[in-house]
Amino acid sequence: MASPPTRARADYDYLIKLLLIGDSGVGKSCLLLRFSDGSFTTSFITTIGIDFKIRTIELDGKRIKLQIWDTAGQERFRTITTAYYRGAMGILLVYDVTDESSFNNIRNWIRNIEQHASDNVNKVLVGNKADMDESKRSAKTNLNVEEVFFSIACDIKQRLAESDNRAEPMTLRINQQDPAASNGQAAQKSSCCGS
Ligand code: GTP
User: Fold this and answer.
1) pLDDT digit string (tens) for 135-170?
2) Annotated region Disordered: where (predicted)?
């Protein structure tokens, strides 16, 4: 007789939910595509409402599953997108280094965060399209894309680990898994938490 299916073991130690916000056209979807699939497209297909991608990375020997939500920058989707702020552990505020208004609007996006996100949410400012300017990060060239996601994931992991230590029963940590059993996409980074 066939044995009952065994429950799959969690394929990660931490699940971290990130949110990408910023004006329409700054390159949020490209940034996510670059980080999750390693690709880039020059065509502009505006996000309708919300989309998400998953990538599992490794930090300090822990598997971190990043669930990254990509919001539509267009005003008409604001009701849908703001509903996702509350569940976010980290928010990437994206602007286009060649578009000053997208940078000026960051203050409005911060206001949205203050109104709709959790108080302790981690935030990082991302200047995209650096290939068109002398700046820091670009989805097109992959410049600093890995670094920005790893850096915010690292900060959040530390925050979660600290709250694990403070309140044992309320832990978000999942049992250590067998790496061979996983089928996620794992980055080979040993440490980025400065430890
Ligand atoms: P919404 O979904 O409407 O909020 O827009 P978005 O912020 O997701 O923008 P998207 O990623 O669709 O990119 C808009 C346009 O900018 C596309 O034509 C991309 O090819 C271009 N783009 C994105 N990132 C870069 C970059 O780093 N460099 C250059 N040169 N172009 C970029």
Assistant:
1) 556 788 888 999 999 999 999 999 998 887 765 544
2) 172-195
CB 177 within 8 A of CB 63: yes
Backbone angles phi, psi at 35, to 5 degrees: -75, -40
Domain ranges of the chain: 14-166
Q: What is the pTM of this model?
A: 0.83
- Distance from the alpha carbon of residue 129 to the mean position of ligand 1, in angstroms: 8
Residue 113 Cα to ligand 1 middle (Å): 22
Ligand 1: residues with CB < 6 A are: 24-30, 41-42, 44, 46-47, 72-74, 128-129, 131-132, 138-140
**What is 137-168 written as a DSSP string?**
--TTT-TTHHHHHHHHHHHHHHHHHHHHHH-G
CA–CA distances in Å: residue 167 to residues 35, 163, 164: 33, 6, 5
Q: Look up the CATH superfamily of 14-166.
A: P-loop containing nucleotide triphosphate hydrolases (3.40.50.300)
**Protein residue whose Cα sits closest to atom 11 of ligand 1:** 27
Structure tokens at 166: 């403070």
Residue nearest to atom 23 of ligand 1 (CA): 27
pLDDT, one tens digit per residue, over 54-98 is 999 999 999 999 999 999 999 999 999 999 999 999 999 999 999
**For atom 30 of ligand 1, which residue has the closest CA?**
129
